[in-house]
Batch of 2 targets.
Target 1
Amino acid sequence: MLSIYQEIMNSFWGIAEQNLDFCCSLFPDADKVNQYMCVLAKLENPEAHWATPNNIIYEHQTLRLRHFPNPKSSSARRPVLILPPQAGHHSNLADYSPAQSLVRVFHSYGYDVYVTEWLSAVFEQRNLGMNDYIRLTDEAVDEIRRRTGVYKIHLIGQCQGGWQAAIYTSLHQDKIATLVSAAAPIDVEAAPSMIIDDAQLPMSFFEYLVATGNGLMQGKYILWGFKNMQADEHYMRKYKRLWKMIAVNDQEGLKRFQRFENWYEYTQQLPGRFYLEIIKNIFKQNNLTKPDTIKLDGRAVDLRNINCPVIIMAGQKDHITPPPQAFALKNYISTPREDVVEILTDGGHIGTLMGTESLREDWTAVTEVLNLAT
């Protein structure tokens, strides 16, 4: 997955940081060059932050359950649990910034909110699999039910968290009032995508990647894979935009750039077994669409067991999970069609999950549907 672009950029910036005087001589404004290099240097060690006050209420293995108490009185009867994606990035996607926070959208509609923060795996956790992550999700759900006394909760899955939420609901429908699946690949054969093309590489290739991490899938490999889908953007255009923002002293633009890059470049390790099972079951064999094919702790996964109200979101410009892959969920569940809501956003993959416009319009529509389902 390491591309020639990555090698070139790493080499260039390594030389540039060691020879700042030489770089400055190439540009008429040394101060701007210095600022440019300082921004890039800060991004060498990205950090994860949460935008909204919260408390850790439960922790086990790679799960850390965070409670985001509603600053106002919670008027909604059922709490919300958000499952962020586990794609090598940090779970604070659900609470990205004060202006871009799914947590705060649900707060504004009176919901008490919980988020699963998935921690970077360590060597001892290398053999955790899909069954373990569904078990950990169940531990989170049961902890919320225990604390609140509410038997059924609303479950929100973002991207990978979406198919995880769908699997969980199919096994524990009695604990879920409403399922929300956002930009989640359910039927990967419903539309072509680059990530599905990449998944057709031999299984030995993915096993080799895990072996280089001593049984763990390194987040940097996953990040490089995502970047290579839009190589021009990630290896060239964004650096040009950064220079233009510095040239015109666009401080707000620089803040947005640094915040996003800080999140995007922050990577985590996944248990090797978990990663390989995802590649095999979701992206290679499309097993979510085949009842009883995936078996977790002796229980067969069958999406037909889902009969609660379901909300499906997809991004019109999503190059990672094209809308047909996400909307296909409705074809494999038992929920009556009148209880399935489909929302097509104007954004791409990340924009659907935490873009300003999507949060203001599309996710607001989600909360309104949940209010009706409560």
Target 2
Amino acid sequence: MNPSEDAERRRALGAFVRAQRERLSPEALGLPPGPRRRTPGLRREELAQLSGLSTTWVTWLEQGREISLSRAALSRLSRALQLGRAERTYLFELAARRDPERQDAEGAPLPAALPACVAAIACPAYILDPCWTVLHWNGAAAHLFAGWLDGDAPGDMAGETPGADGRNMLRFIFLSPVARRLIQDHDARARRVVAEFRAEATPRMTDPSIRALVDGLRRDSPDFARLWAAQDVQGREGGLRRFCHPRDGALCFEQVGFTLASQPGLKLTMLLPQAGNPVPAQAAP
């Protein structure tokens, strides 16, 4: 970020904090009304008191000065300002900090309508969790990923107890012979997938499930261990995805991905058929 962009971000952060402070009623927060107020809402010293910060710190923040903002201080400020989820996310983004409570929000119960939403999509579609395990998929995805998403959970591709690990994309790509037959340019795609996963997973590497996934793949797959050690990082982008389907032959799709607004850790992936693809008979969801 260049100096002008950083200064603009700090000004936006200060303006946001001031606007949120001025919309709060002292009485609603249990504070005495005090003498006549020249401006609406809380005074800076009152916000400082509620958030455990100094009045000078709050003043400099609202003035857009270049100060260091810890995650703990931002959390206290967010609670003092009574920010909602979207407002809190905006505060942390303006401060260029990762919200320590974001992972807890991502673990909230999934919307009840989510499976029906995925099932209603005509093209192959599925939802990935932060470990890149498929949570929900539709009939078109079950048909396309024959040997993985069709039928019962296939285990974790390493001969252990069947379960959710069998739906993990990384374990499918690196541990299943089916993946090597299904995915054209398998080795190139595998390299790209590891770089994309590293970019997304690094902020969550303290999560025991992600650490266990990476450690298990490094143990079970020499290819994954080699690619993980390469330290490549790439954004998860769309593009053409080619398959050699056991029944439909050569297939080509345009992949697009979306982050769920209410669950930032979940990704919706859709594969849009390209011209020339046969129309498959979709399996039941």
